[in-house]
Amino acid sequence: MENSEKLTNSKEVIAYIAERFPKCFTVEGEAKPLKIGIFQDLAERLTDDPKVSKTQLRTALRQYTSSWRYLHGVKAGANRVDLDGNDCGVLEQEHVDHAKQALEESKAKVRARRKEQAEAKAAASKDGEAKAKKIRPKTAKPKNTQQKTTKLNKKPAETTRALTADEVVVGKNVSVNLGNGNMPATIVEINKDDVRVRLSNGLTMVVKAEHLRS
Questions:
Q1: Which residues contact 193 (CB under 8 A, 6 or more apart)?
Q2: Where do the DSSP E strands lie in 60-199?
Q3: Which of 33, 52, 138, 212 has the fewest CB atoms within 10 Å, measured from its CB?
Q4: In this predicted model, what pLDDT tens digit does every residue of 106-144 receive, in sequence order?
């Protein structure tokens, strides 16, 4: 039952047919050019084999004949072989040229892909460095924050001046100098040098005109 387990991928199929037909297929080294129409021969030989299907054989054969080692083997003067290793004629030049072109194109694709991957890796590395540079300055901002906070906490100095005689009139809004600060008030009565004012809290008091500020 172990030998009848179905193969799951082309690599296993190639290894299997190389084991069944060692004079035709190989899993390493330069491969021999295959007889034209060898798929039909292979399908007939393995018709009753439960391990592989025709679809698997076709896919595996396509992969085998497009490999670099197979294309290397398709060269001038080489003979095609059948499943038993018998010669089936010399390769035609057009087939040799086609294999050479296919090999060059395949190698070019691999080089382009490797170059693209290298460029992508380099770009990703540069992006990472750029992001790291942008992030680093953010860790050194406490000093700036403290300076800004200090500036914001400073209150602008209050600028006041003493009232002139003409400015001391009933109804005028003034500031009363109480020694430890100025309080807003309104003049409600004038009696020579004494001036009665109403503070913003509703209280009234008598002060000298010289204590009033604009």
A1: 208, 209, 210
A2: 79-81, 87-90, 173-177, 182-191, 194-199
A3: 138
A4: 999 999 999 999 999 998 888 877 777 776 655 556 565
Give the alpha-carbon dihedral of 60, 61, 63, 69, to 10 degrees.
130
Residues 58-98: pLDDT tens digits?
999 999 999 999 999 999 999 999 999 999 999 999 999 99
Which residue is it, tokens 């109804």? 171
Token pair 């460095």 is at which residue?
129
Task: Write the DSSP assignment of 83-121 as a string of letters.
Answer: TT--EEEEPPHHHHHHHHHHHHHHHHHHHHHHHHHHHHH
Calculate the CA dihedral of residues 198, 200, 203, 208 and round it to 10 degrees: -40
* Mean pLDDT, the chain, integer: 85
The CA-atom distances, in angstroms, between 94 and each of 69, 90, 106 are 19, 12, 18
Q: Are strands 182-191 and 173-177 parallel, antiparallel or unpaired?
A: antiparallel
